[in-house]
Amino acid sequence: MEFEEIKVRSYDGSLDRARLELLERRCEVGPSHVFLFSDTMGDPICRIRNSPLYIMLVAELNHELVGAIQGSIKVVTLKDLAKVGYILGLRVSPFHRRKGIGSSLVHHLEEWFIGNQVDYAYMATEKDNNASVNLFVNKLQYVKFRTPAILIHPVKSRPLKISSKVEIFKINEENAEYLYRRFMGVTEFFPADIDKVLGNKLSLGTWVACERGEHAQFGQNGNFPSNWAMLSVWNSGGLFKLRIGKAPVSCLMYSEVSKVIDKAFACFNMPTLLCSLFEPFGFYFLYGVHQEGQVSRRMVRALCRYVHNMARVDVDCKMVVTELGRYDERVRPHIPHWRMLSCLEDLWCIKALKSEHIESVNELTRIPQTKPLFVDPREV
């Protein structure tokens, strides 16, 4: 019996949705510790739908859907402005691995990038995901680029205390765009269309924190306090949900006990997530975290607590998440997070798709990171 060659084509919702859901379930294999799965709520391209340009490809073998991949394109700051393609959602059926399906999907996506004049392709994976690292770094010539941390904080049943010395206020989209372009315009992967991000219906707003009493003078005549911080909030739960998988026995026991304790002792400040451990839930993503001044880290902490308290009144939101580059390590201790769910070393890899940019990639990866990393909420 002859087998057909791998066929790669664009995703067709009317033909592929059910088969893609089956593929996703088959690929739900992860590490032994707690990890998270995405629940796309019937919209497989939800994670890229808000990008300026995007595509989803599927692979068929003998009329069976055996793989899928997604990609998006945008303009960002690297050394200069550059057009980049982001690769995500690579899935290959466990029954059809080591047949070149993953490589074929990536090659086809790269061809789509090149056809759209993309300068660089990049992707993110867990640092200890050996299969993914081997495919992209060892086989497809991607270069290890950055190792940001994904910090996850479960929403607790009671509000977090915010220092009375810090004042927090919301700013409009126009002022937020001004601040981001002025203070983060040269940040790595800063999106040229930051106005589209801030104006998206999933962006809940931008907040600034400063010393109490300095709000009225903030930004007057282009002047700013010595210490201040800002961040924006994206409602990722408006796109897709998360759920926990393969939790250890201790976590399962805590989940069951927490339900009883939470009912009996409402004063216990426990993560509400653990009271409904395996039900799909939404989360808020903090992006554009920026601080100015020697003691501005406590402003960052106050902002994070403020967003946590916002999330408490959203019955769907069970986590607050952010992602920071290694350059921002001085800020990480001031961002509440739970180590069991957080990933302290994610891995970004990059590849030049144009020969004239190969040396630029080498330079970017050779030189230690000296700038913050902007994580676009549209690609979370």
Automatic annotation (TrEMBL):
GO molecular function term, any single one: acyltransferase activity, transferring groups other than amino-acyl groups
Protein origin, superkingdom: Eukaryota
Pfam families, sorted: Acetyltransf_1
Limits of the N-acetyltransferase domain: 6-205
Name recorded for this polypeptide: N-acetyltransferase domain-containing protein
Organism whose genome encodes this protein: Lactuca saligna
